[in-house]
Design brief:
One of its GO terms (cellular component) is efflux pump complex. It contains 6 helices and 22 strands. By secondary structure, the protein is α+β, with helices and mostly antiparallel strands.
């Protein structure tokens, strides 16, 4: 029995000893090796140089395209459509007949009224001659005059009604979608078709009260619309409202744009950019270089790695050690013998180990243009800012720069 207890005790002791060795010796060694490998491999990033650019201050707004002249044509009097003389999308000239309502009843009435007018004029002439000879009284002539004038007014009234049966273009422009057919009854005032004058065209947009004083009549504007993202439409400020909205504290401005091919249509919204003020000099970086957080905006800058800020566990990569050893051997090699570095040739920069470290700087961001943003404080022109790979970085950690796979700007990407 005692022997059995001794064997069991030895087994338990060996198991506990192995477990202790695994936890206290083997496991820490594996963790140290893993961390050492992870620390030895510097993350790869891309960089771009911060540069100085001159930008004109801009004011941005969202505007609505409006036709200089636009109207939904409607008849002044109800009637049946006898015929129409346009198709959807036609360009028409001022005065062109577009829709003719049935006026047969009015034309018959006009003929009767003209006959009455003719009889009244004959009677008036007869009474005038008789009055001159004293054959009739002045009252008879006055009655004949009233009858003639009444008949003439009746003719004019029916003629006006006939004119109202014709719908003409009040100005030159482009016709919208046709919504009437022959034989259709159209009530008074019901819209038949839209007519818009498209060239030139307006865009109305609000600007903050604080910025309104920096914009003058004649200032140039640029407009971009979603329907034609590849184009920029240019124009000038031509009018401004006489009051500031008490609800939004904005002032509405109006710009006039050229629209020769008539691609800008009323109702479109556009991104409006107004140049205001004198050009200013900014230090600019790609937008991808700026990281935004609740603690502030920051930019990672690639600076020379002097080794002072490197953590104790950081180890040079094998390539770096090999390069340093090759340099040492090259200096000690006797004359006539080529060192290993000479035999292999000069190694590329990417194989000589980390030479740069990442330095995080909090910055003050300014205006932006396209894919670049101005940095008002924190970065100087000529410094290399990191544009990709920021998520892998720690302050003062070594980095490898590889710009062969640099992210392309939106303007460089091919369009589908």
């Amino acid at each position: 029995m005692t022997k059995r207890f001794i064997i069991v005790g030895l087994i338990i002791a060996v198991f506990l000893g192995g477990l202790a060795w695994f936890q206290l010796v083997f496991k820490p060694q594996m963790i140290e090796q893993f961390v050492s490998k992870m620390q030895g491999a510097a993350p790869t990033v891309t960089t771009e140089e911060a540069r100085t650019e001159r930008w004109t201050p801009e004011i941005h707004a969202i505007g609505t395209v409006t036709a200089i002249r636009g109207v939904n044509l409607a008849p002044e009097i109800s009637g049946i459509v006898e015929d129409y003389f346009f198709e959807s999308g036609d360009d028409v000239e001022e005065g062109k007949l577009l829709v003719q309502l049935d006026d047969s009843v009015q034309r018959a009435e006009l003929a009767a009224n003209k006959a009455t007018l003719k009889d009244a004029e004959i009677n008036y002439d007869r009474q005038s001659k008789l009055v001159d000879r004293g054959a009739v009284s002045q009252a008879a002539l006055d009655t004949a005059t009233a009858n003639r004038d009444s008949a003439r007014a009746a003719v004019d009234q029916v003629s006006a009604i006939i004119e109202q049966k014709s719908v003409e273009a009040p100005f030159s422009g482009r016709i919208g979608l046709r919504t009437v057919e022959k034989g259709q009854y159209v009530p008074t005032g019901e819209g038949i078709v839209w007519l818009q004058a498209l060239d030139p065209i307006w865009i109305d947009f609000p600007v903050p009260e604080s910025a309104a004083g920096r914009i003058e009549l004649g200032d140039p504007v640029r407009v971009n619309v979603d329907s034609h993202p590849e184009r920029t439409f240019e124009g000038k400020i031509t009018a401004r409202d006489v009051r500031v909205s008490s609800d939004t504290r904005t002032l509405t401005l109006r710009a006039t744009l050229k629209n020769l091919d008539k691609v800008l249509l009323p109702g479109m919204f556009g991104d409006v950019t107004v140049d205001s003020g004198e050009p200013k000099q900014y230090v600019t970086v790609p937008k991808t270089a700026v990281t935004y957080s609740l603690y502030g905006d920051a930019v990672w800058v690639a600076v020379p790695n002097d080794g002072k800020d490197r953590e104790p566990n950081d180890k040079p990569s094998p390539e770096s050690g090999g390069a340093q050893a090759a340099e040492a051997d090259q200096g000690e090699a006797p004359d006539g013998q080529a060192s290993d570095g000479d035999e292999a040739g000069t190694k590329p920069e990417a194989e000589q180990g980390p030479k740069l470290k990442a330095e995080r700087r909090f910055v003050r961001v300014g205006p932006n243009r396209g894919d670049r943003v101005a940095i008002l404080e924190g970065v100087k022109a000529g410094e290399e800012v990191i544009t990709s790979g920021q998520l892998k970085l720690q302050p003062d950690s070594s980095v490898e720069v590889d710009n062969s796979e640099r992210l392309k700007a939106p303007a460089e990407l091919p369009r589908p």
